[in-house]
Specification:
Elements (H helix, E strand, L loop, with lengths): L5 E3 L10 E13 L8 E8 L2 E5 L2 E5 L4 E4 L5 E5 L6 E7 L10 H4 L3 E3 L3 H19 L5 H20 L12 H11 L10 H8 L3 H12 L3 H19 L4 H7 L5 H12 L3 H14 L5
Parallel strand pairs: 1-2
Antiparallel strand pairs: 2-8, 3-6, 3-8, 4-5, 4-7, 6-9
Helix pairs in contact: 2-3, 4-6, 7-9, 7-10
Amino acid sequence: MDYQLTDKALPENLPAWGVLVLESHHSPTFAMNWRTHEFVKIIYVWKGRGEFHIGDSIHEFHANDVIIIPPHTRNRIIDDTSAAASLYVCCIAQELLNFESGLIQSLKVRLEHHRHGFTNRVTSLLRHLIHSQQKPVSTTSISMVADALRLLQLVLELESRPQTTQQPDSDERAVLRRYIKNLPDRFFEESSIDSTSQQLGIPRRTFTQLFHELTGETWLSHTRRLAVEHAQQRLRQTDLPITSIAFECGFGDLSTFYRQFKKLSGMSPGEYRSANKSSDESGIDQS
């Protein structure tokens, strides 16, 4: 064991930029008094199990669960006597969210049981926050605020979905179905099969086999098709330069964009735009 155990809850003193990450590794005698905080708290359960007491509610937690506690919410943690918890806690000051009224009020207490995609994205951001906090440089504050806001974005995306009472999801097929369903809104973020499968917590070979089974396409073909379809829409509906559209669709260079666009569309981006504008104009009522 290379971390220090604690018998009580750690102090939560946020730095000037408003983001703090705490590692809380509980001893078998850990005890926490009730506390109320002025900031948003997002807790990832690395190990152990127990109960979150929040207001008048009790939420049982296990390893790989994530809980969101809004500001001004009375809370405490009670570990299971046989499995003391290890937690990572991200504290985010309310002041960072003042740019949008009602954002804080939209946050609700929520315990999210282990879900491959969501949990892996949360842990990835937490790791980045920890590294930034441990090795401070001139950009530490900016980096931590940016990652904290991305973490909150994940939480708010959950808030927009109805909460269910399903058991923790370990079905890789179901995880991949959700990923594919959301891919049209985030295809431009994808960089490689390796990073995507790792983020979802699915072995690469299983990921590629299931993806092809569910879509009839390889991951690369599917994401490029989505990119080209988005480019077609932008070419039809806007006058944006082709270079801007290529960037927006996630292509790193114009030559790759032109090659993939022509492969899937049968014509270059410029030809596609001209053909569709001509089609639109020919359909105008001249009466």
